[in-house]
Design a protein that fits this description.
mainly alpha, Arc Repressor Mutant, subunit A, 2 domains, rod-shaped
């Protein structure tokens, strides 16, 4: 397994800004990404992901922004918790109903 290098948000922001600035000096967007990625020590695919995410956040590219993505994750987590809680309550209700029926028949 390869070692993963974690880049701070500030570094990511600076590198993405550098891609936008250097884009005119290269024949394509991809060549700018490859060139800068090799200089900072990350893969071009990783840098492309950062650039695309920034473009989505700025409204340049379609797709979900980072804040929308985080909100969706939060809502999905909350939904899972509510479903679990409802299942617990349903089972408890059935258990109490059985106990009540048992008391009435005696």
């Amino acid at each position: 397994m390869k070692n993963q290098i974690s880049y701070s948000p500030e570094v990511r922001e600076r590198v993405v800004r550098l891609v936008f600035e250097q884009q005119r000096k290269h024949e394509s967007h991809w060549s700018a990404i490859k060139s800068i990625a090799s200089k900072i020590g990350c893969t071009a695919k990783t840098l492309r992901t950062w650039v695309r995410r920034t473009e989505a956040d700025q409204g340049i590219r379609g797709g979900m922004s980072t804040s929308d993505r985080e909100r969706l994750k939060e809502l999905e987590r909350e939904n899972r918790e509510l479903k679990r809680d409802n299942e617990i309550l349903r089972k408890a209700s059935a258990c109490f109903a059985q106990a009540e029926l048992g008391r009435r028949s005696k």
